[in-house]
Amino acid sequence: MADKRDYYEVLGVNKNASDDELKKAYRKAAKSCHPDLHPDDKEAEARFKEVNEAYEVLSDPQKRARYDQFGFEDPTMGGGGGYSSGFSGFSGFGDLDDLFDMFGGFGGGSRSRRQNAPTRGSDLQYNLRLTFEEAAFGCKKEFKFQRNAVCDNCHGTGAKPGTSPTNCTVCGGTGQQRVTMNSPFGQVQSMRTCQACGGKGKVIKERCSKCGGSGFSRITRTVNITVPAGVDDGQNFKTIPGEGEPGRNGGPAGDLYITCSVAPHKIFKRDRFDIHCEVPISFTQAAIGGEIDVPTLEGSTKYNIPAGTQEGTRFRIRNQGIQQFRGTSRGDLYFTVHVEVPKHLNEKQKNLLREFEDSLNGREYERRKSFGDQLADYMKSNADKFREVFGKDKK
Ligand SMILES: [Zn+2]
Ligand SMILES: [Zn+2]
User: Fold this and answer.
1) pLDDT digits (tens, 9 = 90+) for 351-382
2) For the domain with range 7-102, which CATH number is right: 1.20.1050.10, 1.10.150.20, 1.10.287.110, 3.10.180.10?
3) What's the 167 CA to ligand 2 centre distance in angstroms?
4) Considering the entire predicted model, what is its pTM?
5) For residue 34, what are the contacts with CB-CB under 8 A and spacing of at least 6?
6) CA of 292 to the centre of ligand 2 (A)
């Protein structure tokens, strides 16, 4: 027992250290001597045991209190066994990945996935902005975007030109590492991602100066594409294979997906391949009917509205909508008329309208007439009630 180091000294904290300080100190100490990082290093293994034992005692308030009072000579432990008899070995904290996961991650590597296996690069998405007309009629577009590319200085090896990565001596190039640990239940073996090479199986002695060893560099790509007529807002209308991020370890590159956002039009609203608009007409046009101008995607067209056109009537012009995406036919154009009533008439105009109104003698206003009939029916059927209510007021 005499050669045992003080637990506080082992963790490098003072006697008043808080739980947090203990945890931090333990993390630091455990990392510095973990068997995964120091294979076949008996001294590190011994230190790792020591660190674990110290943390196990000091992190338990009861054990810590007894340790503070009696040191290693705790009478309750019976016969000089000290705390080591209660030491639970590597269980719980033994796994390096667990250890670092527990404290917020280390290196970010997944546990057992082979890091040196060929992996496909990520797909990328580019959003192309189009005007309403560009989407309707199709267009040619050039755009630029950035992505990673295999470094042309080192051809992706990450090593300085003229040198090449060498096999990792810790794992022998497999990227995986067999770890043997002692536990109270005997020796335990398990496979881990090699910590020396990060699972790559290769180690770079002299890094490529251009990519800093990553094997990738950032490049700007220029793409020319033909946008087909009829693409719609949010549509993923094209995929360019191999224009995504490059693969790792010889894996294929990802793809580039091109989507578009289509700007709204001042006049037209789109509904799939149909377009809709509103057209104001005068109340005289509505009454007499005749040819009106209707806007189209190409300009305008004449349309004959019938006499007596009512407010809010919707008309359809076939094949004046948007070209169907990868199709041959076009959608339709719908327009809704809104009858405008003049606000400022002079006396002469007013008299003309009065004359006109008199000439109708109440005819031609179907809705007014049927409303009048309904009102009369209503009054008649509720005559008693009206009499009662308004009769009272008179008294
Ligand atoms: Zn490079
Ligand atoms: Zn390795």
Assistant:
1) 999 999 899 887 778 888 888 888 888 888 88
2) 1.10.287.110
3) 8
4) 0.57
5) 44, 48, 96, 99
6) 80
